Queue: 3 jobs
Job 1
Amino acid sequence: MTTRPEPEVTDRASWWTTGQIATAIGVSPVVLRAWDSRYGVGPARRGPGGQRFYGPRELQRLRRMSALVNQGVRAGTAAGLVLSEAVTPAQSRLRADEIDQAAAAIDLPALAVLLDELLAGHGTIAAWVDVLAPVLRRQGERWRAGERAFAAEWALAGAISAALQRHVVGAPPPSGERPVLLACCATERHPLPLQVLATVLREAGIPVVFLGEMVAPDVLVRTAVRIEPVLVLLWSMTPYTADAPLLAELARRGVPVRAAGPGWYPVGGRNGPVLNGLRVALREASARAGRVWP
Ligand code: B12
């Protein structure tokens, strides 16, 4: 069963086929069909001819199933586990506490295990929205309260970034399609929300180029002019880092660009309101890439 709205058949581009899922997780289409028919770990919906269509939730469930089977768990047992793994708010709070403690102790091996499990179990969006962003906000509150724990912040941010990279191994390689281009302003050192967006877009098969933190303005302008992205998201977390002249320069050169992140609020977005939420950014980026975000 799925809580996702049933898409129209014309929304097919928002869904993955069995072949795409097989490539993404490294399991043959035959095995995927067997997991569906034998154990009920299947697609979100079927097309008129019975074709299977999978969404992000099903993708992450099948990734988890595949990981368990690779660890030696029997397929029937693995299926039972993934089907029973509905994530509750209490579980998210528990995960957040564990991750917070591992970061405070700068226990990097524990952090890596916790983050890998979190991403596999919750999926990238819920992992970020329900667990990681709250832990980061807690760290920010402590900073504001005068408790300087930079080492813990650094450990957590680095570990999240590495875990996100591990999580998308197996996503399709870049194609000739025009990508979404994501970049931080030149003095901006808070790239995580943008990396999360890059990860989710990659999981959805939407071409994305993520330039990371502190991108020099001329690098961004040259890259954008060269690769002709469907959209540039220019990220700023704090008011000191929002680079309005750069936003104006990109727009002047005809690059489709939107300001993203809370740092832009005092300045304002140029071509429309500031994008400041993962879901709103996903909708905007997918729409520009010709996809409907489910
Ligand atoms: C981790 C961290 C760092 C790390 C970053 C490492 C890394 N690789 O990312 C390091 C240690 C480098 C760092 C440095 C600094 N930091 Co810092 N940092 C943070 C922290 C704890 C998390 C940042 C983060 O990823 N936030 C993401 C989420 C958790 O933030 P959020 O506010 O909930 O998200 C909002 C939006 O971003 C949006 N959103 C959430 N997800 C997504 C996704 C997408 C795609 C979109 C579009 C929107 C979106 O929704 C939320 C509602 O507005 C924040 C605390 C905080 N609350 O964010 C401080 C914080 C951002 N840092 C702060 C400061 C002051 C600094 C420093 C100046 C400190 C210093 N003196 O060195 C430097 C500045 C560096 C720079 N030039 O950019 C302040 C900024 C205050 C302000 N508004 O001016 C904060 C808020 C801490 C605080 N409470 O004071 N930091």
Job 2
Amino acid sequence: MANLTLSNCKLFLNGKWVRGSIVIDGNSIRYIGPTVKEKGTVWDLEGRPVIPGLIDSHVHLIPTALNREVLDLRRVKSIRELKTLIAKECGKSGWIIGRGWDQENFEEARMPSLKELDEACSSNPVLLIRICGHLALANSLALRKLGLRKGDGLLFEEEVTKALESVLKPGEEKLLRLLKELLYEMPKKGITMVHTLSSTPQEFYLLQLIKVKWGLPVRVRVYFDAKYLDYLLNSKLIGGFGDEYLRISGIKVIMDGSLGARTAYLRERYEDANTRGKLLLNSSKLAELLERARGLNLQVAVHAIGDGAIREVIKALSLSSARGDEVRIEHCSLTPPELLDELAKLRPIISVQPHFIISDWWAERRLGRRCRWLYPFKTMLRAKLKLSGSSDSPVEPWDPWEGMYAAVERGKEEGSSIFKYTSSEKLSISEALTMYTEGGARACREYPDYGSIKIGSKADLTVLEYLPTTPKELKEVEVYATLVGGEITYLKR
Ligand SMILES: [Zn+2]
């Protein structure tokens, strides 16, 4: 491939903006500096900012792809509004599936009842998944069709997954199409790599198909659901298998639930219920898993939200030989200082989802003053922990700019109760960008091949229309072009 020179750029180098040019040779960066006479194509970027390609270190690809087919309920403000929305869909053919409602956002401040759902629609089966994905509400017809007997219409955990699977029953062809559409949309926001968590052999297979049929417009790193560890063993697959575009990186395991559903495991009980949540895996079991995964060169991404769950992860780390970036803590939401000190010694990757700060605006009700330890990104950075930015899509929108915005604004505009306690945890724009570039590459142990503008790094680059200087500009920033390995995956028209 001929050289491509990006000239007249504002380069994001080690957290600073520097004027200069980049020469791309093949799929890598060969030169950074003032413009020199180069053979090949010269692309004058007219002073536009160029950053390393954005990385989302925690998405669920197939659930996000399927989400394109369901009603988005994230902005519904009352049960009344929800009923109207469902009634409008009622009478069309087949199931009505929605996702993203949150009773904390409802004027009525409670969950909808089975009766209310039946009032909205009784002629079609209706299944409405809560924002967290761990809970769903079904109407009477849906319950009958699913063969479930539930007075309150509520489905939990596995029941939700099973119901969705049996209802959506997307054929492979459709799944392939939806997944491809999703991946091909991501470069528009400047994304060059995603890590897909709780992945399945089917998802891995579909990604391979997309790769050979059309090519992957974003690089994908796969973290299988831990229940597939035996599948990996039997298939003789280990971490690192794959190529630059698609690679197995690790497995994902879940320690607790969510704050919204009061299932995140806390050291002390919730403020608004007589429970501490639930620990799903103890430290010795986790330590065992860490050892097994380590033997297969697989990273372990551990979902831990409550301080009780995070404490268990710390215990497991001290029991096992797994160190540093061999382990990632996903969410790491409620992190009081004493646990943060422990983490600073053990140095796992911390994979965070800043947009939770906006969505968990009600956190004060659950945690009271403990909110001051929620999502302490700045303190974590000061403790020299490696943070990677992500969305947890479909739980939160996958647009990385919304995530970065939340990290620098911390829910101030949105009236999140978290802001009051943690305004000092705001990140700078440059720290937020670093989290979604360098941070993401470190999270899958592939820095500085990715996530940086360095000589020898892959030419994964995102060109912006302007340099964002305020939170609002950051949220609304326009991507001008995206390159993966020197190939243009998006160009604004
Ligand atoms: Zn997730």
Job 3
Amino acid sequence: MSISTESQEFAVESNERMPVVVVGAGAMGRSWIRMLASSPHARLVGLVDLDLPLAERAVLEEAASGVIVGTSLEEVVANSGAEAVINVTVPQAHRIVNETALLIGLPVLCEKPIAETLPAAIQQVALADVTGGLIMVSQSRRYFNHLSALRQAVSKLGALGTVTTDFFHADHEPGFREQMLHPLLVDMSIHHFDALRHITGHEPLSVQCSAWNPSWSWYASNASATAVFELTDGVRYVYAGSRCSPGLQTSWNGSWHVYGEHGAAHWDGDHHVEVDAEADITVDVPSDYENIAGSLAAFVESVRNNTTPENEIRDNIASLAMVEAAALSAASGERVVIADLLAASYAEAIATERRDDVRERLAAWGSVEAGLSSGHWGTAALARA
Ligand SMILES: NC(=O)c1ccc[n+]([C@@H]2O[C@H](COP(=O)([O-])OP(=O)(O)OC[C@H]3O[C@@H](n4cnc5c(N)ncnc54)[C@H](O)[C@@H]3O)[C@@H](O)[C@H]2O)c1
């Protein structure tokens, strides 16, 4: 096996930087503000939070000058000349902020998870349809250069048999995570499940999951889980994770093994990719923007070129479905079939949607598969499943 590393200069003129508003000045909002300060792709022109002093403090402490701060997205957009919105609010506020952005006519890059439930996520797909706007989900852990190398290796292993991810961490993050239901599956595993789809191109069909809270856990709900997913073409995905395991901790990206027809590949989640295959396999480690900077680069490129980014909301539904199916399986002890879950979620989306135009659009799809594989920004991820 050989690995080559590209070195590449990124040069984008500052006047090409897209003016953006960040909504949400919490912990992750600060990470976005810091990243934007040196981004060649976008620049911060506005910051919105319901907590105005918090937003003002964030701008001051992060030395972000010339930034319009406020509690109203409409007003901050009007006063700042923003051309796009980055939604870094808590999951329960994602819809209202995305809706406001789309109704103003701006594309939005929204933090994961796109919604707290699948029906709420499906409603946002129809909202994007109705407005003709773009909602891209920032699944930032797709953007790691060694993940790209692993993906290349996996594409050369022939048919796949088994993929495993181990994620063992000890996170102390006071706030909503330590109080929420399923802090591992909902807040963290979505990254790994999404990366699985990205690496293999296989889509989830069903899952059997067990989730529990170890006796010493500092989380209110299940911080540990194991799950076995059946994927398209008979591939199995075996997941084991914990957010309260102090010792032999893995990377935030997890530790990956992929076993195929012609060999196997491993990624430690950081900077080590290893391939053991019948033939010599060459992979390149690119030097692209990583993590949220990579996500932003993909978003700006798609807005500028009017193309559909790979993490457009439609595509992300399958990643969220893996999370929700795993949580349901853990609660019932039963295997959960993803197509059944999606059909039930679609019916609930229609039954609970508050906007007439969005409800009518949902009903007009006829089926969830039709809705997720069509539309202006549509991709065909679930149609493949
Ligand atoms: N991609 C990653 O690796 C990663 C890492 C951490 C967090 N996140 C995601 O980022 C998001 C924010 O997480 P956080 O840790 O910063 O949360 P946080 O609680 O620290 O901050 C959220 C902020 O949103 C504000 N807010 C809530 N509702 C609002 C509304 N309607 N309008 C304007 N502001 C509103 C709150 O006042 C708060 O300041 C979550 O979706 C989380 O899952 C992603």
